[in-house]
Design brief:
Helix content: 40-55%
Order of helices and strands: HHHEEHHHEEEHHEHEEHEEHEE
Structural class: alpha+beta
Length: about 425
Amino acid sequence: MVGKRLRVYYHSVNTNSLLKSPFARVETSLMEAPLQATLRVSEIRYRRLFEAARDGVLLLDPDTGKITDVNPFMIEFLGYTREEFLGKELWEIGLLKDQQASRDMFQELREKHFIRYEDLPLKSTRGRTREVEVVANLYEEDTNLVIQCNIRDITERKLVEQELLAAKNKISRHSAELEETVAERTAQLRETIGELEAFSYSISHDMRAPLRAMRGFSEILLQKYPAKLDAEGIQYLERIHAGAARLDSLIQDVLTYTRVLRAEIKIETIDLDTLVRQIIDTYPQLHADNAQIQIEGVLPKVLGAEVSLAQCISNLLTNAVKFVAPGTTPRVKIRAEAIAGDVRLWVEDNGVGIAAKDQARIFKMFERVGGNTVYEGTGVGLTIVHKAVERMGGQRGVESEVGQGSKFWIQLKGAKL
């Protein structure tokens, strides 16, 4: 009730009178008490934070730059007593290089009210050097300017950064060494492959001459001297002639494969429709046994190397016409489809088909399905298709079932119209 009566009295009198009144002094005292209590609590809280902080804290006089207070962590960190800190400037405890550096810092702090330094080496009284980060703030406290410096030990962080940098540099060196090694090995491999290709080409080319002689002489004997040979002798000559012909065919395929490996691949726009029709018109073996070859629609343009692509298509068409059951008229359909910017060319036949287990290996060198001699071949044609398409940046594949024919395909980038 007393408090209530005092507040009523305060609002009902003149201000000057109130200030002189004893009731006013009582009311003022009652109002100031909570404020002082709040300030006291705040001060206690700040002091606890100051003393418990795990970073170093220094308070400086903004006029002299001398230390006016230091927290326990900083005392423990450097090994000085509190009295040894007080009245010192930062350079005197090793935080800055010299007195001039201290002055420069204070000048910058007055202008910006905030500065931050990193990678400062700080040595303790025990001779231990630590890397620290310093953040200094200039602020006002009860109309007085105060400088607070927070010092954080970043030695461990710097060690980790140095280790990471060292590891990164080591990885970079290893990467450079690996690249150099790979480049050297690649150059050596290319040189070796080049020598092997040249050797293979030379051997294959030189071997054809004696084979042609064998075929020629065997043909002469069969044509001019059959009466002087018995049936068994004629059979031997026919075998010699057939063997020489087969070996010559094999050598020609190997030469073709070598050319595919060695040829410079120049990617350009190719009119697929024109190329396929030219191949059909100029390859007589495609018209054996009344073979029927149908082109579905107009084939699009693709990006490829014309010589290599022509070799692929001719090999696929030759196989499609050849590998049919005896007495069956070969029927081949050629079509194209667009697949996400690519063109897939299909060559579909009504041939004997290929078992699923054989479909991967038929693209390897000298692989023939079933190992029988019913169909002539060297086992190199599809290998040439595989390598040529690979060098043009394309893909190849087959879908087939035994007795149901085969669908071979090659896929290249479509040409922009």
